[in-house]
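Incident log, support desk, overnight shift.

02:14 A customer reports that sequence design results differ from what the structure should imply. Their input is reproduced verbatim below. On-call engineer (initials T.W.) acknowledged and began investigating.
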């Protein structure tokens, strides 16, 4: 929400950014039921990679795992860019100006700034490296850090809603659909990564207590709570400020500044910087666990799967992903990085929704802590929504994804296929194992 709500409202959807989040939420909910069933059935690291491998075969599982490595890394970068915008806004409140070369990616200069002035988003890149450092401290310490920031983040969102509701001007909601329904749907494809945090959560199932019982509930509750907060915050943002005047990179703090609440704006900017670190933490954690799981299974070199002797975390993987996300955050605009994340996650949703249908009919006897309701209609809706949202992504996003996927195909046939430790599943062998 802090990273993309403003950009989507300003550039794609207007006040209908609310519809963007709702459409993305409905699509995500259909898939969330499928994830919840698998989380209770296969509480192992890897999430969609593990589920796809277990039910649909080695190549499908590997393809989704390879896909998620890029998507999760790009998500970390997107959020880092968003936080950087709030950091620059916070400095603006204090009349501090940073050198132009370090405040943004090339080509993101706003009106009034000469083209070529921006060289790198240095703060965003450093944030990615900071999260990698925190993850390398070990899961217990990292989890304490995450929990504290979650309380802070939710508190900031509630502050936005409670204070901002008194500054709403209903005239700002008109026109509600300045870019038409197509703009709202394009916005849904862009903000989609805001509604699938449960996907990354399930990658850490092996490190959770009684995951079979608690993970399905956590997946569904987290999505429900997030959607309520998203809807209310979007209503406040687009009600406080005309969509054309919303700051794409620091929407909420700038909105409060524009209505004379500078102190609240400073609090929101500071809170966003700290609170949204949790998103970076979650998805970098997810990427490391997918990579770890693939390396442990032999699909990628075992060198990566080695963990630290004392802290028991995959240190090598974590630093590599930290560096990769830092490069993306430093040199890509937020919109391009965001769309890069969504195509892969939507494909992962398709695989998981199909897999839950296949497994339900192939192995109805398996003990399930949670059962997807409305089978097969609900997961089929998840597949349909995901395919539909993919069609709204730009061709450049498809091109970048195609390059990454083709590189992965080369890796699979040159290395993964010959080094896999796991027998090809027969639809139930991997789950029974």
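02:41 Re-run completed on a clean worker. Output:
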């Amino acid at each position: 929400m802090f990273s993309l709500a403003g950009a989507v409202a300003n550039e794609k959807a207007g006040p209908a950014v609310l519809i963007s989040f709702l459409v993305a939420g409905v699509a995500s909910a259909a898939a969330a039921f499928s994830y919840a069933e698998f989380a209770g059935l296969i509480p192992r690291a890897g999430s969609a990679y593990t589920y796809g491998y277990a039910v649909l075969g080695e190549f499908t599982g590997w393809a989704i795992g390879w896909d998620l490595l890029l998507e999760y890394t790009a998500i970390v970068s997107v959020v880092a860019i968003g936080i950087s915008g709030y950091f620059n806004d916070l400095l603006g409140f204090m009349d501090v100006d940073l050198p132009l070369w370090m405040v943004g990616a090339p080509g993101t200069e706003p009106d009034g700034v000469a083209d070529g002035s921006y060289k790198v988003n240095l703060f965003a890149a450093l944030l990615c490296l900071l999260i990698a450092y925190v993850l390398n401290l070990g899961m217990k310490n990292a989890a304490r850090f995450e929990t504290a920031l979650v309380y802070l983040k939710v508190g900031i969102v509630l502050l936005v809603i409670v204070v901002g509701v008194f500054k709403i001007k209903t005239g700002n909601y008109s026109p509600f659909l300045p870019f038409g329904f197509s703009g709202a749907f394009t916005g849904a494809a862009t903000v989609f990564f805001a509604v699938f945090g449960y996907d990354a959560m399930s990658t850490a199932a092996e490190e959770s207590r009684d995951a079979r019982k608690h993970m399905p509930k956590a997946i569904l509750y987290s999505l429900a709570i997030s959607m309520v907060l998203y809807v209310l915050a979007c209503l406040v943002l687009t009600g406080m400020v005309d969509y054309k005047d919303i700051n794409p990179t620091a929407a909420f703090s700038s909105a409060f500044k524009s209505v004379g609440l500078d102190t609240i704006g400073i609090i929101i900017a500071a809170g966003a910087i700290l609170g949204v670190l949790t998103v970076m933490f979650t998805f970098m954690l997810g990427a490391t666990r997918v990579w770890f799981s693939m390396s442990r299974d032999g699909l990628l070199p075992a060198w990566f799967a080695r963990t630290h002797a004392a802290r028991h975390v995959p240190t090598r993987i974590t630093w590599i992903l930290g560096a990769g996300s830092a490069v993306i955050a430093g040199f890509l605009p937020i919109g391009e990085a965001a769309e890069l994340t969504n195509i892969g996650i939507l494909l992962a949703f398709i695989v998981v929704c199909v897999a839950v249908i296949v497994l339900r009919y192939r192995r109805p006897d398996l003990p399930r802590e949670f059962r997807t309701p409305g089978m097969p209609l609900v997961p089929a809706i998840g597949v349909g929504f995901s395919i539909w949202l993919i069609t709204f992504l730009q061709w450049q996003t498809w091109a970048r994804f195609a390059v990454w996927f083709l590189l992965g195909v080369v890796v699979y046939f040159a290395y993964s296929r010959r080094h896999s430790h796991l027998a090809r599943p027969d639809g139930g062998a991997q789950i029974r194992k």
